[in-house]
Amino acid sequence: MGESEKLVANLFEMARENAPSIIFIDEIDSLCGQRGEGNESESSRRVKTELLVQMQGVGHNDDKVLVLAATNTPYALDQAVRRRFDKRIYIPLPDLKARQRMFKVHLGDTPHSLSESDFESLARRTDGFSGSDVAVCVNDVLFEPVRKTQDAMFFFRSDDGSTWTPCGSKQPGAVQTTMEELAEEGMADKITPPPISRTDFEKVLARQRPTVSKAELEVYTRFTREFGEEG
Predict the structure, then answer these.
(1) What domains can you pick out in the chain, each with its CATH number?
(2) How confident is the model at residue 61 (pLDDT cuts 50, 70, 90)?
C-alpha cells in the first residue's frame, strides 16, 4: 500500500535533481481517467492524487521540468489533470509529405526499385493513414520478396554465379527450379530475394485500410476547439 504513490513522487524528485528534464507519460488516460467512475480503485485514486500534487509543484522549482503526456482519448481525462497541462496540442494525421518521408524511413536500407514519383504516389494513396498504419504497411511489404522467393518456379542466376534471384518464365536465362531444390543443391546461401517494388506496395495497400475513422478525427477536432490548440 502506498508504493505506487512513492514511485510517482520519486519520479518527480529524480526529474528535479536532474533538471533540465522531461517526464513523458504515454496513454495518460489509463492513469488519469475521470474520478468517481465506478471501476476506479482506491489505489488508482491515490496515484492520481499524487500525480496532481507533484504536477502542481508546490514548494518546488519546476521551471526546468517539463511534463509531457499523450492520449488518444482526450475526453477520458480527469478535468483536474487536463488543467495541469498548460498546452493541449492536437497532432493531426501525417500529411502527404510526411507520409512520403515515412515510407522512406521505414524502408531504410532495404533494396528497392521505387523512384521518387513512386513514393509520392504511395503518399497520395494513403490519405488518412496514421504513422502506425504506414509502418504496418511497410512491415507487410518487407515480407513480399520472401513470399515471391518461396513461391517462385523460375530463378535467374547472376553472371558470376554468386546469386539466384526469382524471376518470370520469360526472362532470358531463367531456370525452372524452386527454392527447395536450390537449397538441396547447397545453394541456399546464394538465394537472393528480389528488391521491393511498387507492385509489392500496391498488393498490400489493396487489402489495408486506415485505422483512424472520421468519427474519431471529429472527436479530436471538437476537443481541440474546446480545450486545445493546433499542433
Answers:
(1) 3-92+220-230 (3.40.50.300), 96-142+196-211 (1.10.8.60), 145-190 (no CATH)
(2) confident
